[in-house]
Every structure is written in structure tokens, then in C-alpha cells.
Amino acid sequence: MPERPEPPAWAVEQPALTALALIAVVLGLHIILPYLQYVLFGIVLAYILLPLQRRLERYVRPMIAAFVSVITAVVVILLPLVYILNVALRQTGQLVDAVRSGDVDIGMIEQEIADRGYEVNLTGLYETYQDSISSGAQGLATGVLDVVGGLPGLMIGLTITLFVCFALLRDGEQLMEWLYRVVPIDDEIQRELFEELDQLMQASVISNVLVAAIQAVLLGAGLAVLGIPAVVLLTVLTFVLTLLPLVGAFGVWLPVSIYLAAVGRPIAAGGLVVYGLLVTVSDTYLRPALIGRTSAFNSAIIVVGIFGGLIAFGAVGLFIGPVVLGGAKIVLDVFARERTDGTRTGAGTATDAPVEGSRPETTDTEAADRTASNADAEHDDGVDSDADDGSDSDA
Length: 395
Description:
0% strand; 2 domains; disordered C terminus; elongated; transmembrane; 82% helix; mainly alpha; AI-2E-like; membrane
């Protein structure tokens, strides 16, 4: 049985300082947790802006480069994102109101589908779930009011996000050096973990989101050409569904194609099917080209990470959730490898290496044989030396 490893010397020699460090970490996490999603959003934003920061640092100081990068993020990313989400929420409310007020002729759609050989009772289905739809609409309106009413808290959160992003862009290298110095893990293992996490962030935050954005914009443009209502809402929905494996844009263009066929636009429906298939197939080429291969990602980790991340971290969990699960897998893999290597090393040392100051035991028979062989060797040496002397004297 391998011996239990001894605690580190620094933890034994200075227990009070070790306890104080643990208390400081716990208190720091307690302060960060209420705004954890905004801190994570700042980390994601800083990671996205890092290439821009490095290019700007060739010409200006890191502080000025970080300031320009943050302003660029606000103008190019945050403001358009807020506008798109606002339009999508408005279109959602208009769609629900149209269904409730009867502006959308469900009976006509039902009749068109029945003429093509499919019996669907959309009216009965709507009447069955009318209370649920009304409750959902009311909940959506309440959620919007909560967001508007919680603007001070939202502004505080966005301020934290921007300051975290600014600090990481300006002092990112110093932070990495601090982590290497503070975290009690070998530098080689830390470097390996950071490289794996960098690949996860690249795959989840940049490449995966970029693929989803490209497909959402392509499909949204096609829907706009066909005159489909609520294009912004459907584009946002396409973006979210494309992040999920085995779903993608298929979950949007297929129902819209069925709707177009039901309302008597078969040519538009067929064109959308062909165009939607092209958008869906583009995922086969875009995703491997931009994401590449990483051993920590598979379909289960992505799906569970996205939905679990949304619940645990809010909207930013859409990107952070898969990274957290993939990072947990990487850490456990490294831990298992190091534990196995340490066990093998300890076992080899205990069984193979001789104990210092000890000699192997010998039996009496082995000792007698060894003495006899030594005596024969000495006798042979004496004979050889005498023969050599005689030959020399004769010469």
C-alpha cells in the first residue's frame, strides 16, 4: 500500500497564514458571486477583444489600447445587441397579440394543410393551450418590466463588465504571472491547463458563436426576401438553435416552409427549403474550419453546458456553460493522469530501490562457494605469474 503523502511544508510551518489565505478566497468569492454573470461576460468580452488589443499595443500604450478596445466593444457589440434583442422582444409581443386577437387566421392555415392531405386541429390545439399562451405572454411582459425596473442594477452590472474587460486587456500578462506565482500547481501543469482552456474558449466563444451568427444572418436575409414577418425574432431564434448540435437552422426554416405552403405559396416554400438546406449544410464546412478538434467537447457537453449555463450564469452561460463543463473534464483528466503517474512512481521506488545502509542476505552455502572460487582464482594467478617469471628468466 503506498504511503499517504505528507502535507506541504508551507502549510505545516505557517498554518495561520494558510487559514487566512483560505478565508480571503472565500470572502472574495462571496463578494463576486452576486455579479458573477457580469464578471464572466467581461472575461468573454476581453477574450474576444484580445486580438484587437495586441494589434493596438504595437502603436500605443496598453492603457490607451484597452480604452479604445472597450469603446469599440460598446459601439460594435453591445449597442447592436441591445437593439436586436429589443426588436425581437417587440416582435414576440406583436405575434402573441396577433394570435390572441385573431389577426392570424388559424382556420385558413388548417384548411390549407388539410387540402394537402394532413389533418391538423390547430384551433383546438390553440384553445387547449390558450391559458398557457396567455400566461406566457404575461410572463414575458412582466419580465420586460422587471428588466426596465431593474435598470440601476443592470447598469451596475454592465459597468462591472466593462471594468473587468478593461482590466484584463490592460493587465492580462501581469494577471497570468500572478496566477503562476500564487496557484500551488506546477508551472508545466498550469501551462497545459491554460492552453486547453484557451482552445475551449476559442471553440465555444469565438468559433461556435461565429458559425451561429453567419448562419442566422444568411437565413434571416432569405426570410426577409420572402417577406416573412418577425424576421428579427426568427433570426435570433436561428442563432440560438444553431448553437445546439443536431438542431441548427433546420428548426426555423422547416416550420416557416410549412407555413408558406399552408398559406398558398408553394414556390416560396420550395425555394426556402432549398436555401435552408444550403444554410444547414454550410455548418458541415464552417464548424470544422473554424472550431477544429478539441477532446473536451462532445454533443452532450455542449447541450448540457448551454442549458445548464443559462440557468446557472444567465445569458452569458450560453457561451460559458460548455467551457465550464469542458474545463472540468480537462482538469479531471490531468488530475487522474498525475495521480496515476505518482502512484506508479511511488510503487517503483518502494519495491525496486534498495534501502540505504542495508546489504542483501546470503546463505552459508553461497558464502562457502564464493570463498572457494576466490581461492581458485588466486591459485591460477600464482601459476600464471610463475610461468611468466620462468619464461622471462630463460629469455
